[in-house]
Amino acid sequence: MTTWATFSLQDSASPLMEQLTFFHDHTLMILIMITMLVSYLMFMLFFNKYTNRNLLHGQTIEMIWTILPTIMLLFIAFPSLRLLYLLDEINEPSMTLKTIGHQWYWKYEYSDFLNIEFDSYMIPTNEMINNNNNNNFRLLDVDNRVVLPMNSQIRILVSAADVIHSWTIPALGVKIDSTPGRLNQTNFMINRPGLFFGQCSEICGTNHSFMPIVIESIPMKNFI
Question: Cα 129–131–132 angle (5° rounding)?
Fold first, then answer.
């Protein structure tokens, strides 16, 4: 999870998030190169003393500053398209988790695993204080966590019962809209045990800030 003074991305917990992190770093390096080049040219432009009364056009430099940005955009576009298709790939899921967004809590169903259903509400701050519970994170922990096996392909089906929500877990690289009357799906694989926190990232009403998501990743043997 994100802590104080964390300026970079969270540590990835899935192969998809690793790829997203690599793409972020790749794009950032290109942006730094462009910024340095433009800054150098502007600096030289401000401080040089050269004048040329006969300079009316420069077709060569115009060709260069048209073709060069095109090539740079291709270096961003190809990895981006590859990643878009990777994010939509469904790879023979081991199990399916169904998620339904409500105002303002999540309902989960293990539809192909013992048909378990439960609601997941945020633990109120006053309840934490009254129970003297220091093990939970304020405004981020829930009463019923989603327990999932690690190193398994998980398909998640997302919908909503009332308004548009968005089921988002940054460490897994998952952000999917839950829309009333529509069933969206995506998949992910958690490659290490731990607790992974997320929140609804679509403004869905008064208590939009208070419908967190918590996934607990455990080995398959313990899950069964």
Answer: 60
Q: Are 33 and 41 in contact, with CB atoms under 8 Å apart?
A: no
- Give the span between the Cα atoms of 137 and 200, in whole angstroms: 16
pLDDT in tens, 95-145: 999 999 998 899 999 988 788 899 999 988 877 777 766 677 888 889 899
What CA–CA distance (Å, rounded) separates 87 from 73? 21
Give the closest residue to 100 by CA, choosing from 114, 120, 123: 120
Q: Is 197 helix (H, G, I), strand (E, B) or coil?
A: strand
Q: Which two tokens stand for residue 181?
A: 């009357």
pTM of the model: 0.82
* Residue-by-residue DSSP string for 139-172: TT-BSSPEEEETTSEEEEEEEESSS-EEEEEGGG
Distance of alpha carbon 176 from alpha carbon 188, whole angstroms: 12
Six token digits for residue 202 = 């679509």
In a 13 Å sphere around the CA of 55, the CA atoms on its Cβ side amount to 7
